[in-house]
Amino acid sequence: MSGMVKGGLERKKEKVEIHWPQAQQHLLQMEDLEQGLLMQPWACLQLAEESLLAKAHITTQGYALLVSDLQQVWHEQVDASVVSQRAKELNKRLTAPPAAFLSRLDALLRPLLKDTACPSEATFSCDRVADTLVLRVRSELAGLPFYWDFHCILASPSLVSQHLIRPLMGMSLALQHQVRELVTLLHMKDLELQDYRESGATLSRDRLKTEPFEENFFLEQFMAEKLPETCGVGDGRPFVMNLQSLYVAVTRQAVQEAQRHQDTGDPQTAHSTCPQETDGQLLNQQEQPVPSEPSLPEPTETSGPLQRPQLSKVKRKKLKGLFS
Q1: Sign of CA dihedral 316, 317, 321, 323
Q2: pLDDT at residue 175, as a whole number
Q3: Confidence label for 304 from pLDDT (cuts 50, 70 and 90)
Q4: Interstrand relation of 288-289 and 311-312 (parallel, antiparallel or unpaired)
Q5: pLDDT number for residue 275
Q6: Which candidate, 251, 259, 309, 321, places its Cα nearest to that of 59?
Q7: What pTM did the predictor assign?
Q8: Which pLDDT band, with edges at 50, 70 and 90, does 134 fall under?
Q9: Helices (DSSP H) in 148-243: which residue ranges?
Q10: Under 8 Å CB-to-CB from 148, ≥6 apart: which residues?
Q11: What order of strands is seen across the sheet that includes strand 43-46?
Q12: Strand pairing partners for 146?
């Protein structure tokens, strides 16, 4: 009897050892998608029905998509197996590996998210059913109709915090610090000009003369005259057009900070920097894949898997001044 129990335990242990590497690999792939999505900038997705804010990260292993109308946020993240199953349901006449469908989706979405005026090869529309937003894509592939539906559910509070609340707070603090440094620089310039005047220097053109900078007066004037026109959110387009380089820099900093704490064995701090829940985990990787449009197989033929696209580091841009 004891031999039977021992044999059963050994078989169970063997089964776990066989499947654990696959589960671990799948988890790493999902974390890769989550981190990649976090470091993507927001873009305007102009549809016939409405204008949405969206960000997407697509690799040969799956995709992650975040969509918002500034009232709600929807999210979908799937791996290659889900892509394969959905592709069979929506495109019965097309046969291709999941990586080919993923690369095709990336080729259709990327131009649209980069430039709203860019003509797209596909037609996009959305439907809302209860708390679900379905983003439908209609295009052609190898001369045959190509369909795809993104099934986005309401994002969890932790995901909204990770992609919006915490980055926006970080951006506000960064801009505040930038303003303080600019104020200090203005005061130093005033002292420099005063020294020139006391040394007998004069302006060649009177119109270039400026008054010494008074911070309190400037802030009062800004709050009264400029604030109403500068804080209009609208459909989110000003945020997308002017602040995405800062957004990406802040989210990248959050990822790097989480990685440093994980490397030093401080899980509590890493958790506070990046919530590690089922939809909010980050992988220790700081690069974004830039897949090129694939050469897809003819319908009814199955091609080999695509090579994983090369990763390229995004260069950190110099932050623009708040009042530029």
Answers
A1: negative
A2: 93
A3: very low
A4: antiparallel
A5: 37
A6: 309
A7: 0.70
A8: very high
A9: 157-160, 166-198, 215-221, 227-230, 237-242
A10: 86, 87, 90, 101, 105, 136, 137
A11: 43-46, 51-59, 62-68, 73-79, 144-154, 132-141, 123-129
A12: 139
Report the percentage of the chain scoring pLDDT > 90.
41
Using DSSP, how many helices (H) and how many strands (E) does the chain show? 10, 9
Neighbours of 24 (CB within 10 A): 10
Helix/strand/coil for 234: coil
Is 36 in contact with 57 (CB distance < 8 Å)?
A: yes
DSSP assigned state of 306? P
pLDDT digits (tens, 9 = 90+) for 235-254: 888 888 889 999 999 999 88
DSSP state of 233: -
**d(Cα 159, Cα 55) in Å, to the nearest integer?**
13
Q: What are phi and psi of 282, to 5 degrees?
A: -120, 145
> Residue 254's pLDDT is what?
86
d(CA 201, CA 194): 10
What does the pLDDT look like over 94-131, one tens digit per residue? 888 999 999 999 999 888 887 655 566 788 999 998 88
DSSP codes, 125-166: EEEEETTEEEEEEEEEETTEEEEEEEEEEEPPHHHHIIIIIH
Residues 30, 63: Cα–Cα separation, whole Å: 9
Residue carrying the six token digits 């290659």: 80
Give residue 111's identity as a one-letter amino acid code: P
Query: Residues, the chain, total?
Result: 324
Amino acid at 149: D
